[in-house]
Input
Amino acid sequence: MAWQGIEGHDAIAARFAAAEARGRIAGSYLFVGPPGVGKGTFALALAKALACERPGAGLVACGGCASCVQADAGSHPDIDVVRKPEDRSTIPLELLIGDDEHRMREGLCWRILLRPALSRRKVAMILDADHFSDEAANCLLKTLEEPPDGATIILVGTALERQLPTIRSRCQVIRFAPLPSAAIRRILERETAGTGIEPATLARCAEAAGGSLARARLALDPDVTAFHGRLIELLATRPLRGVDLARETLAFVEAAGKDAPPRRARLRTALEAALDVFRAAARRTAGEAGHGTDAAAVAAWTGQPDRVAAAAACTLGALEAIDRNANLGVLIDAWTAVLEEPRLSAAP
Ligand SMILES: [Zn+2]
Output
């Protein structure tokens, strides 16, 4: 049975349970690991268990006490969750220390100094911790270094390299690995029970997800599957019609809605699908055996090593630019221009 129903991270849960049993829960943690493996979900479940009035063996929240009820409702006075606003590229200073009018009378760094209202302890978590502004990171340092007694701060980021050394050195780092595909399959089976999706489809999506549950869920989305089919078709067409590719890719991305994360996730799936084609073509050009990706698209790119290398490099660059919060429309235009005519265009 997975710890509190969270697949794939039992070893980390066991470490926290052992630390709790010895009274050694640290004041500051930094969770790192690839996107979509459940770091944020784990942090919330941990906060609930740490705040629970009657936690069971292995640091499992009871689910029934007043603290657990409030945690489940997202209204626990001692569990503080801060995330980057959708329309901002970094976590703004005011979320940590209040705006100009309320400096150190609002914000996470102020709230964590208050006595717990309901539980034995306070837990604050900052999701999207890859995206601190420098001034926000700096004003967090003191809080990370000396959190009040009984308070724990959890930063949830992706790669350790994306954190300032001053933040890293003040936190206990917890590394989350990609999820095993069997764990992803079990989650997908639970989530799609009764929908009639074939077990083989679930197994294939779990296998192809590279350890990311978020990616596996997207791969099951019929809109995503349909667009990938169309993308492969466009990549197989000669001459390649960059304008159509750009227009249809942008429409696919924008159909995810107004929020940036689902839009970025959609573009990421499209770029990764294209990258699969380029990699298969490179292997085919090098004389290696075929690959599961669509044959016509791979054939269209085979035998042109320079062009494939330029397309793959540009696609990798675009994937990195997504993580840096680039403007997606501009990114798509630049990407399709390079695919259409790699020698005349600059990478985005
Ligand atoms: Zn409880």
Residues 122 and 151 are 5 Å apart (CA to CA). The longest strand covers residues 151-156.
